[in-house]
């Protein structure tokens, strides 16, 4: 298996947003930091918490090439808009079970006060989609 992680094109620093462009794939052997959430402090698998947390993990079979035309499973973790249930999901098991015939994509996104806000007023105003 090979794991490919590319960093989001936008990094945040305090109140300012700085556009960063990565022009080539970044090989990674570990997950990046996870986004701050209500439940993140209680996640035993959490590596590091950071606002600089927008990462995409792409898992491919080791023999795959750009012309392989494999199906892609885009895994969107749950958590009720207040926490991420599995920010660092490892897609290798899915690849093995598929007979090495699938690409698995997972990503981090912001929830709670840093992303998807949850309250009666926010729901009434219809402004829930602030996390992506």
From TrEMBL:
GO molecular function annotations of the record: hydrolase activity
Gene3D superfamilies given in the database record: alpha/beta hydrolase
Keyword presence, Hydrolase: yes
Lineage of source species: Eukaryota, Fungi, Dikarya, Basidiomycota, Agaricomycotina
Carboxylesterase type B domain segment(s): 25-121
Keywords noted in UniProt: Hydrolase
Protein name: Alpha/Beta hydrolase protein
PROSITE patterns the record matches: CARBOXYLESTERASE_B_2
């Amino acid at each position: 298996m090979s794991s490919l992680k590319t960093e989001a094109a936008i990094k945040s620093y305090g109140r300012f947003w700085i556009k960063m462009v990565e022009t080539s794939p970044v090989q990674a052997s570990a997950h990046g930091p996870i986004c701050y959430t209500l439940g993140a402090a209680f996640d035993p698998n959490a590596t590091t918490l950071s606002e600089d947390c927008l990462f995409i993990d792409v898992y491919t079979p080791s023999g795959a090439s750009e012309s392989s035309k494999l199906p892609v499973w885009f895994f969107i973790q749950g958590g009720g808009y207040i926490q991420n249930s599995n920010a660092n999901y490892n897609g290798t098991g899915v690849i093995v079970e598929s007979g090495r015939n699938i690409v698995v994509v997972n990503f981090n996104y912001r929830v709670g006060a840093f992303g998807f806000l949850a309250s009666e007023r926010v729901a009434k105003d219809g402004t829930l989609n602030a996390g992506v």
